[in-house]
Amino acid sequence: MEPLTVQLDDAILRHEALGSPLLLSTLSRPSEARTARKATDPNDWSSPGLGTPVDESAPRFTKAPSGTKIQELAIGRGPSAQNGDSISLDFVLRRSNGYFIYSTVEGVSFQPRDIPVGPLDFRLGDPDIIQGLQDTVAGMQAGGKRRSLVPPAAGYKAGPDLKPVLPTFATQRQLLNHAAEPLIFEVQLLRIRQGS
């Protein structure tokens, strides 16, 4: 269907054209925006304006028994991490609204350069590590990347002294103030040393 083109010379004709049935019928035609809405996720009830097209190739989330939601971003190589393995990983920690808290990698977000960075080393299954991070790492291979949404009960709300302990007072305080909120971990597994 060709677009409607109307050329009017004076204000009276424009005023009459605005009330004409021809103009109203062109306004009532389905627009591209309305037809695009049909391709959005029907389960997105957040807001009609926020519905996004469903990307079938996007990684899906899986849910661990602790309630941690895990998204596989990249699959690594080699053996999978199991309980009792010593692992080394880098992570970025954010609040559920995306607000940056801490990273073990230098140069991420607005983290000051004087904050100590470096990989986190721990034994998988250690009860001193928050459950959500352990669920995120379990089954990963070296070089793999995952993102997880950790509920408060599987995070620092379970115990403020749980690891990883963040290096500065400001980051520790932020975790205490927001312990009742979910956290987002973005993890890259660097090394696995099986058993001990």
TrEMBL record:
SUPFAM superfamilies: FKBP-like (SSF54534). The keyword Isomerase applies. Pfam families: FKBP_C. Gene3D superfamilies: 3.10.50.40. Residues 84-193 form the PPIase FKBP-type domain. Residues 31-41 have a biased composition (Basic and acidic residues). It catalyses: [protein]-peptidylproline (omega=180) = [protein]-peptidylproline (omega=0). One of its GO terms (molecular function) is peptidyl-prolyl cis-trans isomerase activity. Residues 29-67 are annotated as: Disordered. Its EC number is 5.2.1.8. Keywords: Isomerase, Rotamase. This is peptidylprolyl isomerase. The lineage of its organism: Eukaryota, Viridiplantae, Chlorophyta, core chlorophytes, Trebouxiophyceae.
